[in-house]
Amino acid sequence: MSSIKYRLLFVALLSVIFLILVGILLAEKSVIGAIIALIASIFSVGYGFILRAKLKREGKL
Question: Could you read off the pLDDT of 37-55 as tens digits, one per residue?
């Protein structure tokens, strides 16, 4: 059983929070806020994939 990678967990939770925020901001009719949250979620998901690939290359995953 492997140990928990807290950095990956944090990035994943942050991505989910941003995606939830997109839905909330659209419901509140704040299109600009939803766009900003969507861009932030794309960056956080991308960072998570980059981090995972880096850890895999180093053999830590």
Answer: 999 999 999 999 999 999 9
- The pLDDT of residue 41 is 97
Residue 35, domain extent: 6-55
CB 48 within 8 A of CB 4: no
Q: Is residue 19 part of a domain?
A: yes
**Cα 5 from Cα 9, distance rounded (Å):** 6
> Which pTM value belongs to this model?
0.85
Query: What's the structural domain count of the chain?
Result: 1
